[in-house]
Specification:
The complex is a heterodimer of chains A (about 110) and B (about 120). With about 110 residues, chain A is mostly beta strands. Chain A is about 0% helix and about 55% strand. In chain A, strands 2, 4, 5, 9, 10 and 11 form a six-stranded mixed β-sheet that branches. In chain A, strands 1-3-8-7-6 form a five-stranded antiparallel β-sheet, with no helix packed on it. The relative contact order of chain A is 0.35. The mean pLDDT of chain A is about 95. With about 120 residues, chain B is mostly beta strands. Helix content of chain B is about 0%, strand content about 50%. Chain B has strands at about 5, 10-15, 20-25, 30-40, 45-50, 55-60, 65-75, 75-80, 90-95, 105-110, 110-115. Chain B is globular. Classes of the chains: A mainly beta (about 110), B mainly beta (about 120). Chains A and B meet through strand 5 of A and loops of B.
């Protein structure tokens, strides 16, 4: 079956750095997405990785290792507004998005 | 670009009534769209995939007679929850498919929170 694993919840301090991991087992791979979802809102796009390596975009970076079925989202200089759920999703061989359950990130002052 | 309007944002209804959720693309056209349901603290669950002008394809366990999807044009799709019951209370999100690959594969509506009393 297809499976995406990410931690259920993480806590970090304002101004610090946090890394949210995602491991996946899917039928085929056509890219990995990270979305941010605030409570009661729809997901918003953060990043897309299809090749191995690190993609940096401001305070957020996303890393992919296809051979390991592994990705992480790195958030730097955390702000209170970064408190949200972070969803990892993989585009499989049929171009269907397979979603992880999301990681709830709690930022403390 | 790629703005999606979804409404109502939230709705409360009595058990047994029907609720229609509308999803409209404002500045683009898309052949394919998806309807998701999300229960608290859970992932997005795909309910159905619909292509403009044809019948929707429902995921296993989703009742097509209960969740009616109409995708009559390239810019508008509706989801009607018929004879809603409290267990149908959830967050419903639509998304349009912008392409087959790459970063812009999906764009989402803001979601509709349904509470059935």
């Amino acid at each position: 079956g297809q499976n995406i694993d990410q931690p259920t919840e993480m806590t970090a301090t304002e101004g610090a750095i946090v890394q949210i991991n995602c491991t996946y087992q899917t039928s085929g791979f056509n890219g990995l997405f990270w979305y941010q979802q605030h409570a009661g809102e729809a997901p918003t796009f953060l990043s897309y990785n299809v090749l191995d390596g690190l993609e940096e975009k401001g305070r957020f970076s996303s890393f992919l290792s296809r051979s390991k079925g592994y990705s992480y989202l790195l958030l730097k200089e955390l702000q209170m507004k970064d408190s949200a759920s972070y969803l990892c999703a993989v585009l499989d061989s049929n171009y269907q998005l397979i979603w992880g359950a999301g990681t709830k990130l709690i930022i403390k002052p | 670009g790629a703005v999606v309007s979804q409404h109502p944002s939230w709705v409360i209804c009595k058990s047994g009534t029907s609720v229609k959720i509308e999803c409209r693309s404002l500045d683009f056209q898309a052949t394919t769209m998806f309807w998701y349901r999300q229960f608290p603290k859970q992932s997005l669950m795909l309910m159905a995939t619909s292509n403009e002008g044809s019948k929707a394809t429902y995921e296993q366990g989703v009742e097509k007679d209960k969740f009616l999807i109409n995708h009559a044009s390239l810019t508008l799709s509706t989801l009607t929850v018929t004879s809603a019951h409290p267990e149908d209370s959830s967050f419903y999100i639509c998304s349009f498919k912008l392409g087959d690959s790459g970063a812009n594969v999906l764009t989402f509506g803001a979601g509709s929170r349904l509470t059935v009393l």
